[in-house]
Queue: 4 jobs
Job 1
Amino acid sequence: MKFKILLALIFVNLLQAQKFYFPKTAVNDSVILEKQIPGLAQQVIPHLQSAKYKPENTVDLMDNLFRLQIVAQDYKNSLISLSENRKLFADNNMGDYRYIGFELYTLAKMEQKENNTSFSNVLQKVFNKKYESLLEKTIPRLGIALDGDVRESKKQLKKVLDKQKDKDSIDYRTALALCKSYLSYKTYSGIKPQVMQLLASKDREKFIIETRDLKLKNGNTLTITIVRKKGDTTPLPVILTNNIYAGPFDEFFGKRAAIYNYVGAVVNTRGKRNSNNVNNPFEHESEDLYDVIDWVSKQPWCNGKVGMIGGSYLGFSQWGAVKKLHPALKTIVPQVAVGIGVDYPAQNNIFMSYMLQWIQYVTNNKLTDEADFANAVKWDSIYTKWYKSGKAFRSLDTISGKPSKIFQRWLDHPGYDQYWQKMVPYKEDFSKINIPILTTTGYYDDDQIGALYYFKQHHLYNKNADHYLVIGPYNHGGAQSFGFTYVNGNPIDPAARISIDDLAFSWFDYILKGGQKPEILKDRINFQVMNTNTWKHVADLDKMHNSSLKFYLQDKKNTSSVFNKPENKTFTTQIVDLKNRDQKDTYYKVSKKDSIKMTNSVAFESEVLDKDIIMSGNLSGVFNVSINKKDFDTDTYLYQIQPDGKSSLLSTHIVRASYAKNNEQRQLLEPNKTEQIPINNSYFMSKKIEKGSKLLLLVGVNKSPNWQINYGSGKDVSDETIKDSGEPLEIKWYNDSYVEIPVYKD
């Protein structure tokens, strides 16, 4: 009896500490693991919705719940939770492909249990049934959705199990990670070979897919994949994509075009797939794509018209293609396009650490190194090691263990010089681009600055540019696929939840097939105003707003309004020790519910807004500063503090002060002299800010493992080390500095 009471007390104590019984024998014995893990999942589920562990948004909650329910063998409820996850992720069945591997595994397990038959037989049955039920537009995504990495999931499972060696209990977070990694391994090791064969069989019924080597006139060889829908006997316009991410995405892009009744052509860049040429990202698109388009346009399945589509690097590629425009190229749809030399690999002339991670991602092999790219722990440790070392940014590739000629070559061009200019149209080149163009980007798109750079330059140098913009509350992925219901954990307006795929191909129908102009394109700029559930349409970017608020760098305690120009000139002093590598993060307490990281920043808070305002456009303005060095990198954030005490980011801006006036030519600052730093190329936003909100402006110094560190010596920043830092950086932020917030008034 005493023994039972003791066991009960131990069990209660484990629960109170959110720990669960899990025998150490399960670590090395797969049979015991199989028996124990369903019960573990059952114990974890009730804690998932507790205040301590509940995810911030319902999408993540349902994501974890359906996985745990599958592991717990509660298959019926897992399918309900998975369906709820998809509905929360995207409207209008746009996310029906999401986690389809888990769905097929679950359906097969249910069927196997009911009919006591082989897993292989029921898997084929449920696959065929599910395939027939899907919207046709979903089918191109199946190859990517089902292509789970068995080796990586096995590795992750082993990693979690190794943490449990010699332990007879498991904490909540480890238990959740164990259940999820176990499910991924069991699912994809159980279904992948068979379902990929079944999908290939379905593809053969629906498509003609051909992959071949294409020898260019310049002597280089590229790999091109052509996808046509079976039954198409007449020549069609071709939708071409230039893809450095060789792999499953090649067939996806091709099949997507075919589903929309075009021929899909996907060409890989030099050095990718079957090409033995040197892979130098970004450098050869303007040359190679002319020959590719020439070849494609002369094929019997092409009617002589070519359009291009793609996002990020693939968006950049289209601007490379129009630098030397082929007559068969009738339109391009650059989505979230990288502004090479403008927002990547340096944003406003500040190089980012991520550039090395990306270089290795696309150059480690002939396809893409997914496992290495996704290894956040590895890359964070590399960035931190460099940061802690105080070595030059140029040493980052050596610290990673893999020196990179590409990384070094990029660093040799800190200004927007001819190296970058030759890759895409430059100044007057834009005047010669007279084909229709549709650009899509988002307020939360990492390459928004690049996408808008091309749009602005095209309209600046070509007054008759037939170039449309669609921008809304989308991130980098959403603005090249469809509007996710939640972005950054917050729901977007129903009006914004559109299919970017449908928009793009209705554009192609309009230009290449004489169809109707897409309804959303009522003017050159088409933007969704967040929190109003409406779209607005204007002729140019400046008309997104018709008024502005100047937020001056002054303490609200000393003024009736931070939006009034100060009567007396003063300054706020900020001191940043660039040598300090053990600096603790500091936070601005917004409310009991929220705080904002403000390390190396100075905070300025507005009074409470007495009416709604619509911010629409991007921040401009000027910083009047005096520093004791020759240069520094500014870092600016504008937040809304909502009436409920939560914060939301409205816009950001970083720039190297010495390049702020001209991104091509460095102009060092004169120490201890008041200088003006203009604010350009900040992030666009259109959002209604409710009455009762406040605005919080953080201005400061960019000092982080994620970016170069500018020590202010005046040397090439890539070559500066901690030895160049000298005395701490002292900045005087004068109160006549202001950030100008664009406002739309009805």
Job 2
Amino acid sequence: MDLVPALEEPLQQPLKAVLGPATAKVMAEHLGLHSVGDLLHHYPRRYEERGQLTHLADLPMDEHVTVVAQVADARLHTFASPRAPRGKGQRLEVTITDGSGRLQLVFFGNGVHKPHKELLPGTRAMFSGKVSLFNRRLQLAHPAYELLRGADDEAVETWAGALIPLYPATAKLESWKIAKAIQTVLPSAQEAIDPLPQSLREGRGLLPLPEALLKIHRPHTKADIADAQARLKWDEAFVLQVALARRRHADAQLPAVPRKPAPDGLLTAFDDRLPFTLTEGQQKVSREIFDDLATDHPMHRLLQGEVGSGKTMVALRAMLAVVDAGGQAALLAPTEVLAQQHHRSVVEMMGELAEGGMLGGSEHATKVVLLTGSMGTAARRQAMLDLVTGEAGIVIGTHALIEDKVQFHDLGLVVVDEQHRFGVEQRDALRGKGKQPPHLLVMTATPIPRTVAMTVFGDLDTSVLDQLPAGRSPIASHVVPAADKPHFLSRAWERVREEVENGHQAYVVCPRIGDDVDEAADPKKSPRKKSPEDEAEKRPPLAVLDVADQLAKGPLSGLRVEVLHGRMHPDDKDAVMRRFAAGETHVLVATTVIEVGVNVPNATAMVIMDADRFGVSQLHQLRGRVGRGSAPGLCLLVSEMPEASAARQRLNAVASTLDGFELSRIDLEQRREGDVLGQAQSGARTSLRVLAVIEDEEIIAQARAEATAVVEADPELTAFPGLRTALDALLDEEREQYLEKG
């Protein structure tokens, strides 16, 4: 959010370089910092306190300490080493004392010259560094030090209490060099133009921007840091929310064809056929969607709901409403397996209503076609003909729908399933096939915390389905520590057998396919002794083909075991899924191709091998494949990671709750939002430097409200030149396109 002409001065320019050319080059190439403004907005990651003064007698191990002491003696040793084979290596050992104890300091190589000259016996100084143990003696290696010329106690306190900013750095440019460069440009902070409207800043008691920049880089107290961060968080939240509010405002100006379902048409006929009642949540969300579809500007709605909360039913009713109103609806799925599954379940749910133009089809019926990349030429040609003539009201497909050759008669609604798997460009290409912008419904089963929804999908209205349909069963989840307790794994396979004996089926999920040597890490590379955690990490992930073979010959012998993975021919994948759905296969050993949308109510057990190799949200998605019928589900998370490891704690969290929103918070806290925003922003660099999406929920919500009010009153922001400048800096070309495409 670099600001203004005064701060747009390049760090490196022919006539007057702000920094040395080498430093400026590294900053540009490795940190993406090109101007004075960029550098001022490169905030400290954290602050090091040199530490309260510590007596040498009570030094804690592995902690950063600051001591005031006198040099007792200093000795320079020379030694031979691989780097200095002729005995030219140098090591300076300095012993210091403060009356309560003694401590050794050590300096090596070229770092010995300065301290050798300055740290003479009798010299008093402050030393700061991390306490380590060498030859059973405490020492500080290469400590920072400040000579004390005269016994100025105040200077000692000030130096020890100083907050040292530590910056995001690179191997080529250490934090202290960045700090030095920032001190050079800090006076320019006075010229920073404030993006926040004055009334907002004063109303919320926020610092002016120049003062915030000064305090974030050169704080005197922890209160300075807190004040500066509070202000800079508001900048980030507010400018981003203004960008999204302007996007929503622009969308509201676009024309769209209102799509109101006919009173006694296809939708009514479908509802009359349903053997169950919709949940309250499904009814409420459907009303929100139908209200949007009836307006004359395009709907932009995000529908998020737990695995199995009935999103597909809501989306199908929306598609039927559009067909009723004379338009066509397209459902875009991320994989062929899922597209085929959706097509199968939609046709089943609609019955004769999906047989438009066929003998035995209902009078309200329409045609439901499938379009995927691997279909035969004749089938593809027929599907495309049905679309261009309007014969097919509903099309379900993969990326094949986006191709130029595919034309619609009157595209009225685009439904995107599992939005995080599609680039913005793909969504946009499909939307571009309407005569006027079609309505858009984006679905995800990955629960998104409210703040992320406001930040990443802030240009979409959000509907949440948090109620499971009646008849859904609870899922029990347990961690199986395969390395600590091998008998637990044997018991896991017994449980799978028991489920099959009771007439049910099971999934076994593995991270890898196993037909490709490159997939595996090379276990021979590192001869050193590894910790158990290292061992579990370095071993190649378990593979579908190997595990299926071992199970069929071993603990699950006699059961019908099949495999499913992404490299199989689409027809083979479909055949495997059909056999599993029909109950002919007992155990399906698969990769994550089954993660989304696969619906086999008779499957009650899932064993996830190397569960620590999957993300929290992914495990939750996978687990949602069981417990879809009336029998309770069981999910076993197998891991060889040690009990104390972070990976095991993550698995314990998944096992402890079925609440996807709670898990998505845990996931986000662990991965941090740069990752999340980076993916969602179509690769555009995340603009968040101090704003933490999870912790700053309140700021984001308030900034959204303020931004909406500002944009409604003044869409072009003519009264806010500072805000416009900040917006231009945020919306570099790539981001501008991202928001344009929505």
Job 3
Amino acid sequence: MTEINSVTTLTREGDVAIITLNSPPVNALSFNVRDGLYEGFKQAIADDSKAIVLICDGRTFIAGADITEFGGASKGASLFDVQNMMESSPKPVVAAIHGTALGGGLEVALCAHYRVAVPSARLGLPEVALGLLPGAGGTQRLPRVVGVENALEMMTSGRHVPAPEAAKLGLVDELAPEGQLKEAAIAFANRCVAENKPLVKISENNTKLEAARGHPEIFAEFRKKNARKFRGFDAPEANIKCIEAAVNSATFDEGLKAERTLFMGLMSGSQSAAQRYYFFAERQAQKIPDVPDDTPVREIRRVGVLGAGTMGGGISMNFVNIGIPVTIVELKQEALDRGLKVIRANYERSRGAKPEETEKRMSLLTGGTDMSALADCDLIIEAVFERMDIKKDVFAQLDKIAKPGAILASNTSYLNVDEIAAATSRPQDVIGLHFFSPANVMKLLEVIRGEKTAKDVIATSMKLAKKIGKVAVLSGVCPGFIGNRMLSQRQREAQKLVLEGAMPWDVDRVLYDFGFPMGPFAMSDLAGLDIGWVKENSKGETIRDVLCEMDRRGQKTGAGYYDYDENRVAKPSPVTEKIINDFIVKSGRNPRKISDEEILERCVFPMINEGVKILEEGMAIRSSDVDTVWINGYGWPVYRGGPMFYGDLVGGPKKVLEKMKEFQGKMGDDFKPAALLEKLAADGGKFGDLKG
């Protein structure tokens, strides 16, 4: 055995040279991995072996680039040096793939002459998720292997393709039995030699590109079909342009130049910076300084859910999906039956749903109308009406019923978790688990740490969140926690803007163009304007009151802030416009023209200011946690990085402070800057540096 460097070895089995990478945790393409590969291939090509196998130790093949090196000075052998060495090898090169071959990892494998993989392996070019494109020839080689249409889908989705599918696409040449990858790869390499198989250079194979030449409609139709999904993002379009270049360029090198130009444009842009920032932010949210990774956790074998409505049903599905039995309790049998029926319908409507899978999951659900059915649950989550008196009553009852050590969780979106915990004799077991609706779909879970919540309860909640596919963020106890507390700032300003002369569709358009899925007024119409509205108490004091009194309650009644046609397509409403103008006249003001810039700054800057207050009070651990909440729970566009990242992007604390003071002077103390914002601006700091 020859040790090439600290992460690479070169060994021999018969006529086959074996280059082995071992750079935990995922064999990322750091400079020492590239150096090891370059020198390993150089030596293997020079020796008397007849074929070369590239394989990796650990749980995966090369899982991609080392993102921590992005933007830094390059050192060591370049990835292109490694690829050229592999592809121009006079001996057959076989890449042996297990785990994942992603991004730069797949780009390396595409420079081997052949690829052997175990069935559990997955292959893909997911750079689009980081606001990038494959920058080492992947955009030029992949369509030459799998065809233009498949390459478009794979690269713009970033999908990890299972090895059996990759074999059908031609991306994998042979599937090896699980656990026998090395033996299968060596056998394949020996066959290459014995059968004098050609040294396949993907870069020279244009057959599948030629089928697409002269057919620009392939790209036009793909863009049209995915316009909604790609809206606002730069990277999908750049990926498409690279594949167009592969099809239309006279040579492979010409296509590579187009790839490089587009890659550098994305790399230097704010979108990729935001998406790379978010990649680390999401992972960082798991880390809680005083609750280390080795904190013991409580075993969760059965979960109880109180309430079978929309939230309770959705929450239950999360646990059933991973095989944890759930007991749902409702006050009345008909409400329970209705809730279970909705859950079943959700499973039956799922894409690719199989009847046996639906039955398996439904069999894990037990319903009841007596709270004592929750006595053997390890975790109980209440999803009852959002009223403190009801919550306290429920927790007082649970305190008597739940077994010792059971975690008692509230799904409250706003209320004081400490006050709820005080209704029990075990506040250390009480925590907030704020799921977002629909709870079986939305990724965010705000984990609310009470003053007396035990550390093992926090650790259990954070790890369990990951198991059920949620992105968990820890918050302290304050009204609205992180997300809704900041949302209230935006909602207040949106309502005020409308009473100053902007129309709801103006506000919605600005926020939609910013990247949100929809604006606040369209969202209200979708949810229903009558949520929380009581007819008997309504006195026409707000625009919403008047709309509801006219039975304009949103999409469900065909009218709300907007008018809707039979397909629920919205259009600006003259009725709403008249109601708004009447309110403005009554207030004694004159409507004014409000610029898009003011709408955006009025809606967003107070949110950033509130985020600073949340950090100032220690209600969030770090500014990136605030951003993680907003990206996963409220539709903040990931390519803008979250409110705190965006604050730095548009000029930092000095710019935000300047605007807040300007608005405060004109419109009052709703815009009063946080003390920490003033300090941050004075010190020349960044929002991204803030810790709670």
Job 4
Amino acid sequence: MSAEATNPVSAAEATGPDAPSRRRARPRIDLRRLGRAALLGPATRDRLPDAIGHVAEAHRAHHPDADLAVLRRAYVLAEHSHRGQFRKSGEPYITHPLAVTLILAELGAETTTLTAALLHDTVEDTEVTLDQVRAQFGDEVAYLVDGVTKLEKVDYGAAAEPETFRKMLVATGNDVRVMSIKLADRLHNMRTLGVMRPEKQVRIAKVTRDVLIPLAERLGVQALKTELEDLVFAILHPEEYEATRALIAENTGAGDALAAIADSVSAVLRDADITAEVLVRPRHFVSVHRVRLKRGDLRGSDFGRLLVLVGEDADCYAVLGELHTCFTPVISEFKDFIAAPKFNLYQSLHTAVAAPDGAVAEVLIRTHQMHQVAEAGVVALGNPYTPPTGSDGPEPAEDGERVDPTRPGWLSRLLDWQQATPDPDTFWTSLRADLAEDQEITVFRADGGTLGLPAGASCVDAAYAQHGDAAHGCLGARVNGRLATLSTVLNDGDTVQPLLAQDTASGPSPEWLEHARTPAARIAITAWLQAHPEAVGAPEADPRPPVSFTADRRSGAKLQADLPEATATDAVVRPAGCCTPVPPDEITGFQVRGGSVTVHRTGCAVVDTMRRLGRAPVTVHWGDTAECRVTLVAESFGRPRLLADLTEAIATAGVAVVAATIEPPSEQRVRHTYTLQLPDAAGLPALMRAMRDVPGVYDVSRARHPDSHGE
């Protein structure tokens, strides 16, 4: 039984529960329309062969001004070179490149891609050479044909598959259209998989599920992805597939509920003077199966969704406002993928509304252009390597690379780490794990750039994504301005700043692997640990008690208080330990038990507390001396020579250390507390800056004196 016989319904969400909903629906990209293609028949020089009439019609629908002459020449060459060859199904082999080309034409691919699709098997399977293709069709077509040729004749054995897809990724990195042709090629092969042995069907279906479907999702080619999902579903889960097919067959009238809601939505938008097209989109088999698992018993409105198409981005939000005003919205279902597009270029507003009878309809709101990209992904963008009008070449990116909307961050990262993975098994495992991450977050770098990371990524992943192997010396990070450990999980929109040590000898610890989600980070960490086995085997240092040392004490800055003579004789005026004021800070004082006066900075929280308690402030001011004593806390990441570098920075500033305490490391963080005697209080800001500049130190602040007991 062929794949078409196994899956009797059209794919790409064409499995609507009833006929009326299909009549109301916008014509979907029908990827199964081409059956057995006609062989090359009599045709005049200026007329297209009948066999590619479907291709020409589909291509002109997207590109009215396309030159079809090159397609005619490509078909003539392909048919002549494949003549006498047959597929395992018994069909003439030319039907395969024709079907692949039609798939891409329906998706909106440009002429060069279609030409390469017609010729994609000629160099591999016939006597046609790559030089002949280049001579007749140019370098661009030859490059695409060569890229696809390297991916053909796949041996689906365990050892061959990883290397095959490694080659595919390398080819894709240079021109994403190679991947588009490969995906269309796999789709047609999956449709005709029924002629193969069952065990081979299962093996190919699993590879399609694990790699090709996620790649189609990443490239945004939903029309390809949905049909591949249904074909794989039928092979790997035949019982669930049959149950889903029966469920759809039993609910042939279920579309009436959605049709009624669609009529109401159309009326609301007409009254609001919003030009929009409201359509019913039946769910495909896998989508129905997932909804049934999520919700249990299905209602009529669960077998499809409403699609609202408008002209401009602003109209999308106008439609959303009308729907939420005139219907009861299900707020938990709202998602804005226009303001924040998905990693695969997808843009839409998602919401759900409840009808008066309680039926809930999911609604997708997008422009016509967004709809084309949602269906065809990168294929709908045409040739990304054609310079913009009036330009001499592609616009360079800020980092010096060409701007390419079809090479999003996930693909660049994937290409980077695959080069660092010589072991095929490790590559295969990492590839499947990376593709399984179907959600991506965007975090901002401290320098203003952005990083695309999989959901659940940590600061470890951000460090390696931004700095590569230099992240081996990462000590920690700031997330949204605050210190964070490397294990901190990042959220969409966070600002992250990895903090690196200048000591190039430092490296990651094995625990980092527990927090790394991206293959790039895991592969880099593993490679370093394997190259430095002595670091892995080094025992953890025993917890150290606090270390303290004391130097000669000197007098601090002079403080004077304006007190009545009766109380001023024995009064002691001292700086408060909570805010450690030093000249030239603005200060105020309060008398405490025993008649002493404690002096605070005017911005100290204790000042507000004392005033709320009704305590009268005492006027205080600095004496003539410029000396002062201050306690500073330096928070840092542990590393060799950190204490020596800090004390050197202090000594270079001409400051004496009165006392110092170093607390035991906690999660790679170390807290140093210094009591310092400054010859001139004006030098305090410069001293704090010098201490912050010490590698590994992320903050220096004034703190409570170690011997301070408050008020």
